[in-house]
Request: fold
Amino acid sequence: MSRNDGRAAMRLYLAVGCGAAIGSLARFLSGFVIVSLLGLSALYATAFVNVVGSWVIMFFATLTRPDGRLMIGTAGRNFVTAGLCGGFTTFSAMTLDTFVLLLEGDLKLAAIYLVGVVVLSLASAWLGYAVATQINR
Reply:
């Protein structure tokens, strides 16, 4: 590996790590606002970040694809997709929330929650794609 390859790899690692730190902090703050300030269930916080994160990742990925309007390098693209969105979204937390509902015997709420978050996240990703596609024209 050449010196320049090593620097490029280090830039990529730092970009993903910094993005993940920011995304995780944003996820934590979203949960704080939704649960502590608004008084809603933590399920809403998890659903919120997954739906918003699905929109952001698809919107950004569409804008930065080869025919997109934003020309951005590998480090910048991975800062947002792998880092920021990866740190912000909470699939593992959604899984835990669903499992806890199942353990509590609330099969109906567990099913509604899981299907609802997945469907809303896919719809949100589609909306991000549609908006970014319009911008790319």
Summary: The mean pLDDT is 95. Residues 101 and 107 are 7 Å apart (CA to CA). The helical segments are 3-37, 42-63, 74-88, 91-103, 107-136. Residues 3-37 form the longest helix (35 residues).
